[in-house]
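Q: I'm teaching a short session on how sequence maps to structure, and I want students to see two examples side by side rather than one. Could you give me a first protein with its sequence written out and its structure tokens following it? Keep the formatting plain so it prints cleanly on a handout.
A: Of course. Example one:
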Amino acid sequence: MRPEALIFDVFGTCVDWRTCIARELAAVLPGADALALADAWRGEYQPAMERIRAGNRDYVALDDLHRENLNLVLGRFGLAVPDRDGLNRAWERLDPWPDVVPGLHDLRGHAIIAPCSNGSIALMTRLARHAGLPWDCILGAEIARDYKPRPGVYLASCAALRLAPESVMMVAAHNDDLEAARAAGLATAFVPRPMEYGPDRQSDLGPAQDWDVVASDFPALSRQLFG
């Protein structure tokens, strides 16, 4: 198939959040276990969004959830950081995996490309500027006022492009993201990121279903879709 647009998960699929967040934590907390802190901070991500998905809280942008989660984690570890707002902006300074920028440029020559992330428009815009991600526009959670894997997030991205879901391909390194996108009627592409959680990762090492495309990296995805 040749999709008219590709929308991308960002954290983990496009950028190496764990290494970069640990690096920023190590800079402000040199005596702490930076990787453990990064994992703990990320560990609060799904529970915080689930309260919104379940209807127990109105929509709150991920920037603010990250900041609340940082407070929780620093309290749990008994750590103090004077400039917590500055540290929270570390999520805007994540580096891409090596194949991502050239692969996105290849794909952009054939189709619209945009993030479909749980990150806010502000976060995704600043991250794109830092990482050199050549998006055509910013889509995802904020335009839907909800969080993946709720179907409305994928469908709002399609609607914003005035495209039918079957003309849009969701690209992710996470099988549950693709499962939800497929259920909403989108095409799917799996690109593994085995080092997202470090060498001991146990999940998402390979495709869990017969996704429309399985590619080793973004340039391979472009070749498989467009030749």
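Q: Perfect. Now a second example for contrast.
A: Example two:
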Amino acid sequence: MKLEEYVDQVVNGLPCSRREKQDVKDELLDHVTSMKQELMEEGYAEQEAAALAIQRFGPVAELKSQLAASMPLIDKYVRKWVLALFGLYVAACSYLLLLSPDRWHRRRFTLEWKERMLRHGAPEYTYIFQNTKPMRTLFDYVFHYEHYSAYTIAYNLLGNIALFMPLGLLLPLLFASFRNRHRVFFTALFASLAIEFLQFWLALGSFDVDDLLLNVLGGLCGYGLFRAGAAFVYRQRSREADKSFSTLS
């Protein structure tokens, strides 16, 4: 078997993009060719050296299985698009939560309200724009649901969860160091806390500790989706490797 044929069989079917597959092929062919040259320098004939180099690298199915197992969930070319998607997600969140014209329009009302309450000697009413008691807002939606529209309840509950799901999904997909639920938990917590603080400090929204709980829950839900997707991908790769091994053995 020629070296090119051997490398083609190994690379064919690897779980990666065409460009990444070509990179793996070029690198593997370079290593096999280098070993062949070393064997020829030791006195082996060209065909014998090629056969011995292939033998030392191992059977096609075994090497393919090892390469497939070592491949990242997304290769470096696809990763660029996912990284761009993550940047778009951060930009969209920044706009919706801090930069939208609607928030800055409501800011004027919030500042005027606080100023009016202070002028009338009722500073306690300036705290209607914050909630520091866990579950207070959630219980209010449950036990006094008749005071709110279905849209308001869904927007504030499901919206806060859905908002942070991409964070829990994309971070571990892009960075192996975030493939840990504790890191995702604290990242979601600190990101949500920063947003809540900025909204309150700039009078762009209310500070609500229940939003923190829902945001963190959303981040963990996104991480759960990542774990389920990763398990599915690795299981499929294992099946493909077993199928390839049984076909070539």
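Q: What should students look for in example two?
A: Point them to this: Residues 57 and 174 are 31 Å apart (CA to CA). Also worth mentioning: The beta strands are 130-131, 207-208.
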